[in-house]
């Protein structure tokens, strides 16, 4: 079990009607920009109902993991806007964010739906990803930003 | 790569050869159209390949809370450094 479970997670998010927006490497791949990844990253709306649906989605994929119950709207809406869920076998992690500093929150993200094996996946738009990545200090993000700018003709 | 490879990916059977004048031109060439069945298959294959070829990790299982994305990223790096590399059979 490992990254090949990511499609299962995306399907579960759709089936539980989770309000989320995919970012990170999988979002890059969804836009046709290939890069390896070791994680799944997305923003969620931190309201109680949505976080409950998120827990239900993760339980569909990892049914025997009680740790999923620890994902709470109180944390995501409060002092801990970034939550990391590492899967039971430790092979990959899921980064769940409600906001990123003062600049980005789930509510402000532009996204589009793309089909993956018939499942609608909510992906941040190329322009949105570019804005999120261009100013960071992580080298992976800077490379992503350059790829997005070149492929989609984006400007500062 | 034959189209009947184990991953099930049909490697551009309609366009088996593409020609480029430079590396830049090659990198700018479209991969597969997002949202198409070919794209879905390619994504699944990439995830499978990364999962198979990347060093196997043993991240600490469970839920971890962070006050910022930077804090989460720093912890991720520490886990990567500590994670045992287990070769696949």
Order of helices and strands of chain A: HEHEHHEEEEEEHH
Measured between the Cα atoms of the first and last residue of chain A, the distance is: 40 Å
Specify the helix fraction band of chain A: 25-40%
- Rg calculated over all Cα atoms of chain B: 19 Å
Structure characterization notes:
- The complex is a heterodimer of chains A (156) and B (89).
- Chain A is α+β, with helices and mostly antiparallel strands and 156 residues long.
- Chain A is 38% helix and 23% strand.
- Chain A is globular, with a radius of gyration of 15 Å.
- Chain B is elongated.
- Chain B is mainly alpha-helical and 89 residues long.
- The two termini of chain B are 23 Å apart.
- Residues 1-9 of chain B have low confidence and may be disordered.
- The A-B interface holds A 2-4, 6-7, 26, 29-34, 36-39, 65, 67-68, 70-71, 75, 79-93, 95, 97, 100-101, 114-117, 138, 150-151 and B 28, 30-35, 37, 39-40, 43-44, 46-48, 50-51, 54, 56-69, 71-73, 75-76.
- β3 (82-86) of chain A pairs antiparallel with β1 of chain B, so a sheet runs across the interface.
